[in-house]
Design a protein that fits this description.
With about 140 residues, the chain is an alpha+beta fold. The chain has helices at about 5-20, 65-75, 80-90, 95-105, 105-120, 125-135, and strands at about 30-35, 40-50, 55-65. The protein contains six helices and three strands; from the N terminus they run H-E-E-E-H-H-H-H-H.
């Protein structure tokens, strides 16, 4: 195994080459989010190096931002689509009224969603929800 690249790196490189060569469906960029053995989230994205001999490909690896990972974490709790929408807005710091306005639902419906979210994530408040999603995974 020595000298081999991790599967995530080769997958992004292969996808980047496929996009460039027109083999894969057009996409702006090959991109992958990965959870490491050390408990860190990374984002990998590939690019073709312009002017490089042989059409070389580069894979950039960087720490994932919370906004990139939060949807994955929230989905892991088994929330419905609307509960995920509400959770994302809570994580952005919106009030109940702002969430209701953004999603075109009543304040009471937002509160019902929050109760269901709290039950599924096993928290009792918005603060605990944000802490659970953030501190458990970052």
């Amino acid at each position: 195994m020595e000298g081999r690249l991790p599967l995530a790196v080769t997958a992004v490189a292969d996808r980047t080459r496929g996009i460039h060569e027109g083999v894969d469906s057009p996409a702006p960029q090959a991109r992958l989010r990965a959870y490491t053995r050390s408990g860190r989230w990374l984002v990998l994205h590939g690019t073709r190096l312009s002017g490089a001999a042989g059409g070389q490909t580069a894979v950039i690896i960087e720490p994932a931002r919370r906004a990139e990972i939060a949807p994955i974490i929230v989905q892991a709790y088994g929330l419905s689509g609307r509960e995920r929408d509400v959770t994302q807005l809570v994580l952005q710091g919106l009030s109940t009224k702002e969430i209701a306005d953004r999603l075109f639902i009543s304040v009471h419906t937002v509160q019902d969603h929050l109760k269901a979210i709290f039950d599924k994530v096993d928290v009792h408040s918005r603060r605990e929800l944000v802490s659970r999603v953030s501190s458990d995974h970052f």
